[in-house]
Automatic annotation (TrEMBL):
Name recorded for this polypeptide: indole-3-glycerol-phosphate synthase
EC number(s) given by UniProt: 4.1.1.48
Domain Indole-3-glycerol phosphate synthase: residue ranges: 116-377
A Pfam family it matches: IGPS
GO biological process: L-tryptophan biosynthetic process
Keyword Amino-acid biosynthesis listed: yes
Pathway participation: Amino-acid biosynthesis; L-tryptophan biosynthesis; L-tryptophan from chorismate: step 4/5
InterPro entries: Aldolase_TIM, Indole-3-glycerol_P_synth, Indole-3-glycerol_P_synth_dom, Indole-3-GlycerolPSynthase_CS, RibuloseP-bd_barrel
UniProt organism field: Zea mays
GO molecular function, one term: indole-3-glycerol-phosphate synthase activity
SUPFAM superfamilies: Ribulose-phoshate binding barrel
Catalyzed reaction equations: 1-(2-carboxyphenylamino)-1-deoxy-D-ribulose 5-phosphate + H(+) = (1S,2R)-1-C-(indol-3-yl)glycerol 3-phosphate + CO2 + H2O
Length: 386
């Protein structure tokens, strides 16, 4: 991804790479560029020449608080986005290369620190290729024509009240990097239907192809099948294009991962979600990430992932520890918490419920059983009311 940030006509142009996503795009489909002022600064991006929207696209001037943020000021002064992200505790490096960075030899070859970094590097290439095939303007038009989004947070609240246990976000995924193939016979619509029948409040659909054998076609198929549960697009979001694309395929919510995204991008992506009527589940893994997210306006849902990014080991005590330390702030902000990963038994669910979560996101412990829908009763120790 390349972009240029320009001053007024009399100023020089600074060309950089790895810019914040927030300076790349307008905030909503209805945004129109205001007249440039000689004292202001405009932000522009130059898209691939292969796309229809290859013209320079201006977004906002600095009178928007988003563009007065510390990240933009640091970026303008010459600091790289990787350096800015590192200062926020983000260890995932962004490569911004035109092809898969793990390919090639010598200086062209890079070695990822962990599986998440590899996924993000691959995702950068994938998104660039998708945007070249389907420009943002086309994706926005498709998103505008999609049926209205369903109330993801409302569905979780209703299920929590109905069953007196944390609401279930049941995951539809075929494989994972840590466990490999989870299910030989994989029919996403069939799995989604049995989840809904057995009390799932919402569904999470994996859309990453390279590492999880998922697809946006699976998301679209589940949405068009008549299933009523709101859908979370479980994607590694690094670009607003992905959010619009997910909406066009029927997603009601998206996942935003704090371990990958600097604060400015989370803030911007939350605005995009709000403009589309979508929810955002902001995922954290540790105390530093949680503290960052709690300072960002507009967060309604926080997902606490119990899986270590470094070792991929799982410990549900992570949910309990973070809520013991920051539960008061979370409650004060009226943020709802979802516990993710490592939930296999009724005791696991009861443990995180006592810690203060109102929903759980579960996939592996359901998908590895013969009947994923009936496995829900085994997870909660009782049948859930749909």
């Amino acid at each position: 991804m390349e972009s240029s940030m320009s001053m007024s006509a009399a100023a020089s142009v600074v060309v950089r790479t790895c810019v914040p996503a927030a300076v790349m795009l307008p905030l909503s489909p209805s945004f129109t560029r205001p007249a440039l002022r000689t004292t202001g600064r405009g932000f522009r991006c130059r898209c691939s020449s292969a796309t229809k929207d290859s013209a320079v696209v201006y977004s906002r001037l600095l009178d928007d608080a988003l563009f007065r943020s510390a990240e933009v000021i640091q970026w303008e002064s010459g600091k790289s986005m990787n350096a800015i992200a590192t200062a926020q505790g983000i260890q995932i490096r962004r490569r911004c290369r035109p092809r898969y960075p793990s390919e090639g030899t010598g200086a062209e070859r890079a070695v990822p620190r962990n599986i998440l970094e590899q996924i993000i590097w691959d995702k950068e290439v994938e998104v660039a290729q998708r945007k070249a095939r389907t420009p943002l303007c086309e994706v926005k038009a498709s998103a505008a024509l999609a049926p209205p989004p369903r109330d993801f947070v409302g569905a979780l609240r209703a299920a929590c009240r109905r069953n007196a246990v944390p609401a279930l976000v049941a995951e539809v995924k075929k494989a994972s990097p840590s466990k490999g193939l989870l299910r030989d016979h994989f029919d996403p619509v069939e799995i989604a239907r049995t989840y809904e029948k057995n009390g799932a409040a919402c569904l999470s659909i994996l859309t990453d192809e390279k590492h999880f054998q998922g697809s946006f076609e699976n998301l679209e198929a589940v949405r068009s099948s008549g299933i009523n549960c709101p859908l979370l697009c479980k994607e590694f979001v690094i670009d607003a294009w992905q959010i619009y694309y997910a909406r066009s395929k029927g997603a009601d919510a998206v996942l935003l991962i704090a371990a990958v995204l600097p604060d400015i991008d989370i803030t911007y992506f939350l605005r995009v979600c709000k403009s589309l009527g979508m929810a955002a589940l902001v995922e954290v893994h540790d105390e530093r990430e949680l503290d960052r997210v709690l300072k960002i306006d507009g967060v309604e849902l926080i997902g606490i992932n119990n899986r270590s990014l470094g070792t991929f080991e799982v410990d549900t005590a992570n949910t309990n520890m973070l809520l013991e330390k920051r539960g008061d702030i979370i409650n004060e902000k009226r943020i709802q918490v979802v516990s993710e990963s490592g939930l296999f038994t009724p005791d696991d669910v009861a443990y995180v419920q006592k810690a203060g979560v109102f929903a759980v996101l579960v996939g592996e412990s359901l998908l590895t059983q013969e009947d994923p829908g009936r496995a829900i009763a085994g997870l909660f120790g009782k049948e859930l009311l749909p």
